[in-house]
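> tool_call: predict_assembly(chains=two)
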Amino acid sequence: MNRHPHTTDPTGFDFMANRGREEQDRDTVGIILAVGVMAFLTLCQYCGLY
Amino acid sequence: MEQLITTDHAGSAAAGTQKDTPMSNMPAAVPYEMRRKSIWSCLYSLQEVLPGLLAMFFIAIFSNNLAGVPNPFTLENLFAYLDNVIGPVNGQGFFQIMNANFVWNALLAGLIIGNVFGVPESWKRGLSYIHKLMPLGIIMLGPHFVLSHGLKAGFGPMLIAVVMLLVTAGLALKGAKLFKVDDRQASIVAGGLATGDPHVCAILMPMIKAKGGQVVNATACVILFGLLASFLLPLLGKLTGLSDQAFGLASALSIGNGAQAASSGFAYGYEAGRYARYYDAVRHAIMPAGFLYVFLVMFWRKLKYKNDPTVMATRGVDTIPPYVIVFVLGWGLACLHLFKEPAHHAIFDMVKWDFSLAAAALGLSLPLKEILSWGWRGFALTSAVGLVRIALVLGTLFACVKFGWLGL
């Protein structure tokens, strides 16, 4: 097996690989952050902060 | 297999000096499942991710004018300057016609840095944040698409736009076999061409499980075809004798990309150019329907032919990703005008940040040969489907003008 020089580090970690439990966790973190940012910005406006 | 815990990923080997290295003699990373304590484990430690995050950050802020960063030395400003030096093409900036924007500026910068200097080993953990940024950005795009904005141009144009979108995407997906294009690349072409927005190519990447090289190749195909179509369409329009209003709608629906459609319109006439801008809202409002349609068709196809090894699109996607469902909910709330101005703009500023960072990581991940290896078949597919769409749009609008439908 050869490693991709742009994406894989010497331990075999490929930053473009995304699967399994790690993918689920990344998606969940993305969703939490997205909902948080959108809710925060929307609430700021509804509260008249900008 | 012996697992070694390695915390030091520091390395400075550049791609110029890196070769495909055999991994058999190297210490293996601890599998994620073993180091996982909670969902937050995917953030890794700050020491591991900081170099990569800083690389993405600096590429992003030197590529685009991002909210909160008063940096004038950006690729965006350089392109704006060059636009002024070159002068307008049909009233549009040349780099606007070439689709220079917050995604592709950062992608281009990442590509140049990755291919010239390489990607240091210490960046790679941090660059994996692209997989958190993509769902984050896709969800935050929800408030950007408001159906009522498109409906202001009328129900008729909206109906034609929806039909053309579905037909174009369907033809591109069907044509993949004929042109021997990988189904993942065909999906990206279908999304980009049908919606007329090369951003959709990037949005579909995690949903389709397409490779980075396929996404960039497909995007280049959509942009290049749009450029050629923006010169071809006015010539065909003169033959059909469409009114300025009808031709403006034809530009928005057959080319897509806002600046390319406007360039086509202004090449036809001043009023046609203004109508192309006006009808762009129609195409824009239904854009999510385009990439959701492509994803759902390919997902259903994968379920139907799950034992067929040639079916690669959405392979590895077992259910509809939760972020797609959250995006649809956000889009629905946007259509109900929950996100008022300026919150909508503030959220879109965050989208620009998000996709700039993600595009930097994507650019760094791609050797040029990986983009070129997908060849010209994608462009042949894009051109064939694009030309069929132009014929359908012009035919439909010619009939509308002739019979006095839609007030065209």
